[in-house]
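Researcher: Go.
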Amino acid sequence: MRSARGTQPQPALAMEKASADAQDLAAAADAQRGLREEDVAQIVHDFKCPLATITLETCLLDAKLADCDLAYVRTAVARIDRNIAFLDRMVQELLDLCSIDAGQFVLHRAPTELRDLLGDVIDRIIATGERARVRVEAPDPVTLEIDDLRIERVVANFLHNALKFSPPSSAIVVRLESRPEVVCISVIDAGPGIPADEATLVFDKYRRAGSAPGHEGCGLGLYVSKRIVEAHGGRIGVESTYGAGSRFYFELPVA
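Model: Structure:
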């Protein structure tokens, strides 16, 4: 990528290479798992958008560093970090999808304290400016034997959707409830809700929550989350009132 001082390749070349890399990855997934052509096209598109943002921000960042514009540098680094995290989620979802479709999905269970897990997920994925919106209701510690990294991804998917679809100033509640036979984790938002005829479809493969146009994602997050929860012997669901928010939840057996 070419900087303001002309020492690197042009941004257009870097963007072209990034797009080619995304196409190669999607083509490999297509060859391995027989994805439909339109699914591959959607995956390529969803990789290209954050890659283009990273490329542009890196180019501008280099120029701003030369000008010592630290405020812009911090903003650019945060934007790059968010896009890298998004790409990482997509890659992990695609890897899990391949394992699921191949019948090779294996859990790595260990005793995990769920209240700590929720705190770790929030600290990692919620930006500092958004932190005040998120309220955790987890009065008691609860320990289960789970695949903690995959359960973290389920919670993260719920949180990302809540942040994406709800108004910027609205509250998001993360709730941990311990019941006699199950533990329930919920993420409750004040977003637009989901029409009744779509609520039963949001966990389908390649289906996006609310089918909202203009939102990034390849429609695998909730599907993979469902399979992760089911592999733990649990169940996943959504309660939503159109125009009045949603509650996404999953339950895990105590024993």
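Model: The mean pLDDT is 78.
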